[in-house]
Amino acid sequence: MGAASSATLSWTDCSRSRPESARVRLPERGAERLALAAMKGFRQFIVRGNLVDLAVAVVIGQQFSTLVKGLTTSFITPLLALFGSQQSLDNYSFSIHKSKFTYGLFIDDVISFVIAAIVIYFLVVAPVARLLRLFARDQAATEQPCPVCTRSIPVAAQRCPECTSMLVEPESSASANDVPDPRPAPVG
Predict the structure, then answer these.
(1) What residues form DSSP beta bridges with 143?
(2) Helix (H) or strand (E) segment spanning residue 182
(3) How far apart are CA 25 and CA 12, in angstroms?
(4) Under 8 Å CB-to-CB from 20, ≥6 apart: which residues?
(5) Residues with Cβ < 8 Å from 104, sequence gap 6 or more?
(6) Which of 159, 140, 141, 162 is nearest to 151 (CA)?
(7) Alpha-carbon distances, residue 143 vs 44, 147, 169 (angstroms)
């Protein structure tokens, strides 16, 4: 065979000349669909808002922790050290049987934690709790509990979507209170 004839052979021609055991098998359609579905589910999991929010929160939390630690080390600790004889709380320690316990570092970390907890409470937790109370108040004005199944339903609903009980009586049914008075007797 010349060079021109070998160039005209396609990949399928070459694979047919191989024995059955040496051929590469492609996945069947069912396995391929399963793999694609798994990748689609994984992709949805990765780009889901909660996971992205969590990743951002971890990064910001780490930076915030570094900032609070710097504030504690640079300003708070030297102020507290004014009451002691040493410049820094890092130098406070005691030894027992050749083991050194640096309680000054622990005090420094406790101060950092308390500052971070106070800032997070007043800048995140308290405002979010206030917003949730406002939303609950607005929801209470637009929703009511079903008297039968206690599911929260719109105020204007006439039937509960959960238990299908009637919330208001239909206008066509007349009760004993709605019976008109008999006609008056003719005057004559």
Answers:
(1) 154
(2) none
(3) 13
(4) none
(5) 88, 89, 90, 91, 92, 93
(6) 162
(7) 33, 12, 19
Domain ranges for the chain, please list them.
27-142
Task: Domain 27-142: give its CATH architecture.
Answer: Orthogonal Bundle (1.10)
Q: List pLDDT tens digits, range 114-152.
A: 888 888 889 888 998 898 888 877 766 788 888 888 888
- Cβ burial of 169 (10 Å; 0-12, 13-18, 19+) is exposed
Q: How big is the chain, counted in residues?
A: 188
Phi, psi of 160 (to 5 degrees): -75, 130
The DSSP-derived string for 24-36 is PPPPPHHHHHHHH
Q: Which amino acid is at 17?
A: S
CB 45 within 8 A of CB 51: yes
Angle (deg, nearest 10), helices 29-47 and 49-71: 40
DSSP structure string for 110-135: HHHHHHHHHHHIIIIIHHHHHHHHHH
Specify the pairing of strand 143-145 against strand 94-96: unpaired
* Whether the predicted model's global pTM rises above the 0.90 cut: no
* Matching residue, tokens 């396609």: 10
Instruction: Give the pair of three-digit tokens for residue 61.
Output: 């939390």
Q: Which residue has the tokens 């579905």?
A: 37
